[in-house]
Write a structure and sequence with these properties.
Low-confidence stretches: 6-16
Subcellular location: Membrane
GO cellular component, one term: membrane
Membrane topology: Multi-pass membrane protein
Order of helices and strands: EEHEHEHEHEHEHHEHHHHH
Largest sheet: 8 strands, mixed
Shape: elongated
Bound molecules: guanosine-5'-diphosphate-alpha-D-mannose, manganese (II) ion
Pfam families: Glycos_transf_2 (PF00535), GtrA_DPMS_TM (PF04138)
Number of helices: 12
GO molecular function: dolichyl-phosphate beta-D-mannosyltransferase activity
Radius of gyration: 26 Å
């Protein structure tokens, strides 16, 4: 077992002592407390691999139980190299584990499969063969393709959540996911070349690279690597062999965040998100203005200066959490101060504009504020996007 506390450190240990031929497939299996599934999974994988296909297996483990020791014992009776990377810092959850596994393996095909046997081990040769035949860079095992089924999704609730999140994801990436019926699949094979391309891009551009967050690692790879050629292999999602699912409501929220970040990774999409969040900030701002001018004797210009702070806070919270998740410079408080300063700078333009509408055109302060907000809006995006987040 290799134990790493620094996720970028550590080396890979192989349990096979004899020199083995270069593997064609690196099978990466993320595990979180799956001790009771390991024997069954490794037996299944061994039985499924046809003669002539070289496979190395790497478990990337974040367990708190004895899963790594169980894997080591089972590995001894496997014909192929099997190793475990245990992470002391489980950064990025399931997706982070897969990316750590990608970095520590080398075969031209990378395959990912869960440890609980919901993905039948026979998929391994099937996916690789389908990818080779079609010269595709990505092969997705799909529950939703013709001939597949989601039998093992327990209960109407999980079926509904899975269906809704698949539909939402496909609607956010209509072109990219055109040929993918199951973008949430946890079982797929991708050519290393495609991943390397995205990682290299990440070094030169802030928008490239991999930033996995939780369960949906396939989505991360499909969006960031833009694989050339995608095919699907239908399969029947089985019942869990032992133990229970590790997915939680918290994991669901993480997924929404992941989606928001992936969708806003280019500047144009970010501008749309900025606009939507900004417009939503009009609501607290105008409500506060309406309340302050109604309930106090404050001058409307002073009331708007105060009311604006509520809108600023609202906008910052949503932007900082959803749109600018990674690559945040400095501390939260520092970003809030910078953001608030820029957001309030617009008052210098807005207050005179607003007074013009009120004094000269006889408008009420609330409609005058609406117009002033819209006018100054575009300017604000450009300033925040370039000065606070340096995109
Ligand atoms: N290393 C690591 N770290 N592994 C994890 C973590 C983690 O934080 N969380 C879960 N895993 C491992 C589990 O041990 C299991 O091997 C695999 O990831 C999947 O976890 P499950 O909890 O069994 O997920 P699921 O059955 O609800 O959903 C799976 O299948 C769906 C259909 O393919 C996931 O793969 C989903 O992403 C997928 O949509
Ligand atoms: Mn499962």
């Amino acid at each position: 077992v290799v134990r790493v506390s620094d996720p970028s450190g550590g080396t890979m240990a192989s349990d096979s002592s004899s020199p083995t031929p270069m593997p064609a497939v690196s099978l990466i299996v993320p595990t979180f407390n799956e001790a009771a599934n390991i024997d069954e999974l490794l037996d299944g994988v061994c039985a499924a691999i046809p003669a002539g296909l070289e496979v190395e297996v790497l478990f990337v483990d974040d367990s708190t139980d004895d899963t790594p020791e169980v894997i080591e014992k089972a590995a001894a009776r496997c014909p192929m190299p099997v190793s475990v990377l245990h992470r002391e810092v489980p950064e990025g959850g399931l997706g982070g584990a897969v990316v750590a596994g990608i970095a520590r393996t080398s075969a031209p095909w990378i395959m990912v499969m869960d440890a609980d046997l919901q993905h039948p081990p026979e998929l391994l040769p099937q996916l690789i063969e389908a990818g080779e035949r079609a010269a595709a860079e990505l092969v997705v095992a799909s529950r939703y393709a013709e001939g597949g089924s989601r039998g093992g999704l327990a209960g109407g609730y999980r079926v509904a959540v899975s269906g809704a999140s698949t539909a939402l994801t496909k609607s956010l990436f209509p072109r990219l996911l055109r040929g993918v019926s199951d973008p949430m699949s946890g079982c797929f094979a991708i050519r290393r070349e495609a991943v390397d391309r995205a990682v290299q891009e990440g070094e030169t551009r802030q928008e490239g690279g991999l930033r996995p967050l939780g369960y949906k690692i396939l989505l991360e790879l499909a969006v960031r690597c833009r694989p050339r050629g995608v095919v699907e292999v239908p399969y029947e999602f089985g019942e869990r062999f032992a133990g229970e699912s590790k997915s939680t409501v918290r994991e669901g929220l993480r997924f929404l965040r992941h989606l928001a970040e992936l969708r806003t990774s280019d500047k144009r999409a970010r501008m749309v998100a900025f606009g939507l969040i900004g417009v939503s900030g009009f609501v607290p701002n105008l409500l506060a203005l309406w309340a302050l001018t109604g309930a106090t004797t404050l001058h409307y210009a002073v009331a708007e200066v105060l009311a604006n702070q509520l809108g600023v806070l609202w906008n910052f919270a949503l932007l900082d959490f959803l749109v600018y998740r990674s690559g945040k410079p400095g501390r939260g408080a520092g970003r809030l101060l910078g953001f608030a300063a820029l957001s309030n700078a617009d008052l210098l333009a807005r207050i005179p504009l607003m007074m013009l509408f009120v004094e000269q055109a006889g408008m009420g302060p609330v409609p005058a504020t609406v117009i002033s907000l819209v006018v100054v809006f575009a300017l604000r995006f450009l300033l925040v996007d370039t000065l606070i987040y340096r995109r």
